[in-house]
Amino acid sequence: MTGIYKIVDSVNGLLWGKNILVFMLIGAAIYFSFKTKFMQFRLFNKIVKVLFKNEKGKHGISSLETFFLGTACRVGAGNIAGVVAAISVGGSGSFLECG
Predict the structure, then answer these.
(1) Could you say which protein family the record assigns here (predicted)?
(2) Which residue has the higher pLDDT, 83 or 69?
(3) pLDDT over 60 at 61, yes or no
(4) Residues in Cβ contact with 15 at an 8 Å cutoff, skipping those fewer than 6 apart
(5) Distance (Å, rounded) from C-alpha 13 to C-alpha 31?
């Protein structure tokens, strides 16, 4: 177990010690922005129109409901996983800082 801890600690120190991960994420964002020709800015109006379009099928859900559902799935799972990780690493007292 200490071997795994040492590996994770060294990778963590490498990525966060000099903020390499931050530069990697910014670089990836810039790269994909150029590859998609800045889609997030070009199509912003269309994204907002589709998001708030109130087309609902007979048994379906609207675009806004789909957005809320997708966001809830991601945020909810992240909160659960974050609390579980904090408790498993820091013990039961770490729950007070997460909640």
Answers:
(1) Belongs to the alanine or glycine:cation symporter (AGCS) (TC 2.A.25) family.
(2) 69
(3) yes
(4) 21, 24
(5) 25
Q: Is the pTM of this model over 0.85?
A: no
Which H helix or E strand runs over 10? helix 2-17
Helix 44-51, helix 63-90: angle, nearest 10: 100
Polymer length of the chain: 99
Question: Residue 19 gets which letter from DSSP?
Answer: T
- Name the 3-class secondary structure at 68: helix
pLDDT higher than threshold 80 for residue 28: yes
What pLDDT is recorded for position 95?
55
52 to 47, 57, 63, 65, 74: CA distances (angstroms): 9, 15, 7, 9, 21
